[in-house]
Amino acid sequence: MDEFKKKLKIRVSAIALFVIVYAVVNASVHIFGAERSSGLFSGIIDGFGGGMLTAMVLLCVAVSLRYNRAMKNDTELQKLYNAEHDERKLFIKQKCGGDIIVPLSIVIIAAATVAAYFNVTVFITLMCTAFFQLLTCCCLKLYYSRKY
Amino acid sequence: MNTNIPALRKKMKLSQEELALAVGTTRQTITSIEVGKYTASLPLAYKIAHYFELSIEEVFDFSDVTLPNENLK
């Protein structure tokens, strides 16, 4: 369990680093950033990037709080360890393709964010692909969670 | 697969959460095993049986498992 605790500490540190980098970059962009272009799609693209990063930061903070709470309480730590290593959960994840679909969707969303600055059609196509993949994965996860 | 886990838990006045914590799994997995939706792996079955100080056959009902034909052995 000590090894798992160390792993959680590393995760919390990585999250803290990400949040700090986000805060610094965000502040720099607002203080020194160039004037944003106008137009519907420019607004969508700018808003999407900012919104996605903010959502990621909020998610990271929530996960970090959960890890911190678990590290202070042995029972919570054991529960978290059990949840992460639960054979049924891993089986369901494998069945719904979560091992490959989630990382692939993250790569597609990252590619879409970059592509957004060059071509709006490519951005929308990639985003639709990623969301359809994630939706399929979620539906399969729900189905298998009920089945097993 | 049928199991005697609910009866054994009742006998020991143990909740699903407590059993899950003791054998290193989640409450949902214990529920699924109890209702026969999910078949536990051999290591998990062994952990559960060991927790109740019984053999695997005493905890899990293998009557519906087809054994290999004696002639094919």
Summarize model confidence as the mean pLDDT of chain A: 88
Kindly report the oligomeric state of this protein.
heterodimer
Report the sheet-strand fraction of chain A: under 5%
> Which percent range fits the helix content of chain A?
over 70%
Beta-strand share of residues of chain B: under 5%
Proportion of helical residues of chain B: 40-55%
Please write the string of helix (H) and strand (E) elements of chain B.
HHHHH
Radius of gyration of chain B (Å): 13 Å
Total helical segments of chain A: 6
Largest sheet of chain B: none
Morphology call of chain A: flat
Tell me the number of strands of chain A.
Answer: 0
Judged by helices, strands and strand pairing, the structural class of chain B is mainly alpha
Low-confidence stretches of chain A: none
Q: Write down the secondary-structure element order of chain A.
A: HHHHHH
Account of the 3D structure:
The complex is a heterodimer of chains A (148) and B (73). Chain A is built from 6 helices and no strands. With 148 residues, chain A is mainly alpha-helical. The longest helix of chain A has 33 residues, at 40-72. Chain A is flat and about 50 Å long. The model of chain A has no long low-confidence stretch (mean pLDDT 88). With 73 residues, chain B is mostly helical. Chain B is 53% helix and 0% strand. Chain B is built from 5 helices and no strands. Chain B has helices at residues 5-12, 16-23, 27-35, 42-51, 56-59. In chain B, helix 2 crosses helix 3 (27-35). The model of chain B has no long low-confidence stretch (mean pLDDT 91).
